[in-house]
Design a protein that fits this description.
The chain is mostly beta strands and 153 residues long. The chain contains 1 helix and 8 strands; from the N terminus they run ββββαββββ. It is globular, with a radius of gyration of 18 Å.
Length: 153
């Protein structure tokens, strides 16, 4: 049985590269990353369904949420906050391992250009300050969100 630990997942942002030639920088001062992949359903029930409901695939939705340590010196902190403040998109790669993957392995996840829709700060007494961050896809000229796969021989 093969499995991947949550701590081995990676979240990168494109730090100044183009879509065709990205410069991936890992966000390391984060925890509790959740990649949400959901799909609407459309009811297509007819009388021929013998009393059962039937569905068709609807629109897909994707978002990434995580906690980011409130550390202004951390890689990516300024870029994520600036994307929120200035309504500018940021391209991210959320995968189950490092890119490029080690020899003979494959990583998988989602690549998307997104908006920062949430950058809330948690100031729980006795805890470090954390930002609750949420990223959602945004219309752009490069590409729609996509499942990302990268392999090495």
């Amino acid at each position: 049985m093969a499995f991947v630990l949550g701590q081995d997942g990676k979240l990168y942002f494109n730090d100044g590269g183009t879509y065709a030639s990205p410069t991936w920088t890992e966000l390391t001062q984060i925890k509790d990353v959740t990649l949400n992949l959901t799909k609407e359903t459309t009811d297509v029930t007819t009388r021929s369904a013998a009393g059962y409901r039937e569905y068709a695939d609807g629109l897909k939705d994707v978002n990434v949420s995580f906690k980011m340590l409130w550390d202004q010196a951390a890689d990516g902190y300024d870029e994520i906050l600036a994307a929120y403040e200035n309504n500018t998109p940021v391209e991210i790669l959320c995968v189950d391992g490092a890119t490029p993957p080690p020899s003979g392995s494959t990583i998988k996840g989602v690549r998307m250009t997104c908006m920062v829709s949430n950058f809330s700060r948690d100031e729980t007494l006795g805890e470090a300050m954390w930002s609750d961050v949420e990223l959602r896809p945004v219309a752009n000229d490069d590409a729609a969100p996509a499942i990302y796969t990268e392999s090495t021989p």
